[in-house]
Amino acid sequence: MVIRVLPPAVAAGIAAGEVIERPASVVKELVENSLDAGASTVGVEVLQGGLQSIRVTDDGSGIAPDELRLAFERHATSKLRSLDDLAAVTSLGFRGEALASIAAAAHVRLLTRTAGAEAAAFVEIEGSAVIAEGTSSGAPGTSVTVEALFSTIPARLKFIRSASAETARIRGVLDHMAMACPHVRFSLRSEARMLLQTSGNGALRDVMAAVYGAEVADSLIEVTGSARGVYPVHGMVSPAERSRPNRTGMSLFVNGRWVSNRTLSVAVEQAYAGLLMEGRYPIAAMFVDVPPAEVDPNVHPNKREVRLVRDADAFSSVQRAVREALLADSPVAEARGLLAPPPAPAQAPTPAPTLALGGLAPALSAGLAPLPEPSASPSGGEDALAAPAAAGQGAPGSPRAPLRILGQISNMFVVAEGADGMYLIDQHAAHEAVLYYRLLRQWEERRPEVQSMLEPLPVELTPEQVEAVAGAQPTLERYGVRIEPFGGSTWLVRSVPLMARSVSAAKLVAEILDAHSGGAGSDTHLAVAASIACHSAVRAGQTLDRQEMEALGHALTTEDIPQHCPHGRPTMLRVTTSSLEREFGRS
Ligand code: ADP
Ligand code: MG
């Protein structure tokens, strides 16, 4: 075949495919134009998932009649003039491609009127050619109608599954535009049904109610910029118990633009570390503001991806702000159903002997074993529960009052008195959470507490583990684990994290390497911290002495620890004094 320059209509059709992937992309581009035009009301109506028709109507600035045709030219835009402008662009559009692309792929009619104009002007275009134009009556603003989308590009139609799936995607676009612009009134109608309607009153929570329902919206926790973050951040996130099995509820915005960005979504997810079970994701609408020069929205023609110059700063700004909001909103779970009345005794209770038990019903008294002596019982925990080095510096604003340790039950739970009631601590889950968050803190501050081996400890690694060493090395070192090759499959462990001293170093190293053998992602350090914490924490079944329990209680109330272990199980339950009073018939 000889090389030929493609006819303009073919070239336009090919280029259009990049911007206009499906009906939802048309909706997105048109709504972006309305928002860029300063609209305060945007109405969208679709038929057949947008394949039959899409109409977007706004009350924005409108287009001057003499610029109408120009608006449909490729690379015609009012939003920037030079490449320098691109570095500072704050509008949603800037490529000047959307109208041209839509016109290449469908039948388009645009009706527009500027504020000062006496009448509206319209133009009708099909396959990039003007087929009609003139003046008409019409309100100030712009209305664009797109019909028979992709009739000129049948290949595209093959990728479109069903009208209902497309309608759902369009709904998704509108949901996110509405979150980004709570001051704009949005409506979406499909066939005769109203799918979304927002008030434009400026309240994000009201938009979230329109999108997710009032119950979810009421439960959302407000996030405001972290004092420690580099970039201003705001938004709303769900409490952990509102999680979902996928990421569809996570919405991210950079400078008001709805984006898909891995760094930011990992930042939100990591803020929930220890709060959510694996495979569960929050509902979130998080906004981060970055100086325009530090973000590149021109990564893809559909502008859904952005590149952040200071990726790590954006990450930590979002992660910290969300985490702080979650911790501030993390009350100790109340133990429900724990206080069921004891089962009725087999025989009729004899009233007399209860006196000897201080008035307690016999069945209940059986559950009240004496508190263990505060003696030095043999401890398998060694000094794993020693108070943290920096015990004095409790998390600012830590919500909990000190705990008065009462004892241990079943070698599994620690009983304590605290603010308004009795606290039951799961010793393993709680200690694991303490260690996990200490590790993460040390990781973040790059100050691991290290325990050097007096003599290097040889470990045997499997070929898979050896292969994982390279990827895992930076993570290992940042936690204070140093290993080096000795020859063959033998490696030497030179140091381990200080808090891991009661664990077999060999087992620890092997497990970390196993965690890495799938390749090191940006969040493997969480898995490593979880594995160190899990192995170093006291086990259920281990007798704790008073000092160890005190140290655990102290850590739980002074350090920045959520009420769940890294696996998402609660670390503490509370039985309120008032519920005890109720159960004993005192109130
Ligand atoms: P871009 O948005 O990248 O500039 P488009 O092809 O989407 O490119 O639009 C071209 C131009 O048409 C815009 O720059 C804008 O001046 C004008 N325009 C498009 N839609 C509207 C609208 N709804 N209201 C006012 N002007 C619009
Ligand atoms: Mg545009």
Description:
It is a single chain. By secondary structure, this protein is of the alpha+beta class. It folds into three domains: 8-197, 2-Layer Sandwich (Heat Shock Protein 90), CATH 3.30.565.10; 220-327, Ribosomal Protein S5, domain 2; 334-371 and 381-587, 2-Layer Sandwich (Ribosomal Protein S8, Chain: A, domain 1), CATH 3.30.1370.100. Helix content is 33%, strand content 22%. The chain is built from 18 helices and 23 strands. The strands form five sheets. The protein has an eight-stranded mixed beta sheet with strand order 5-4-3-6-2-1-7-8, with helices on one face. A hairpin with a 2-residue loop joins strand 4 and strand 5 (129-136). The structure holds adenosine-5'-diphosphate and magnesium ion (MG). The site of adenosine-5'-diphosphate has 23 residues, from helix 2 and helix 5.
Query: Bound compounds, please?
Result: adenosine-5'-diphosphate, magnesium ion
Do you know the CATH topology of the largest domain?
Answer: Ribosomal Protein S8, Chain: A, domain 1
Shape: elongated
Biggest sheet character: 8 strands, mixed
> How many β-strands, per DSSP?
23
Unreliable segments (pLDDT under 50, ≥5 consecutive)? 340-399
Q: What is the gyration radius calculated from CA atoms? A: 31 Å
Tell me what portion of residues adopts beta-strand conformation: 15-25%
Terminal residue distance:
92 Å
Lateral strand order in the biggest sheet: 5-4-3-6-2-1-7-8
- CATH class of the largest domain, named Alpha Beta
Nearest-integer average pLDDT:
82
Helix content: 25-40%
By CATH, the superfamily of the largest domain comes out as MutL, C-terminal domain, regulatory subdomain
Please identify, by name, the CATH architecture of the largest domain.
Answer: 2-Layer Sandwich
What is the number of domains? 3
In DSSP terms, counting alpha (H) and pi (I) runs of 4 or more, how many helices? Answer: 18
Which class of secondary structure composition applies to the elements?
A: alpha+beta
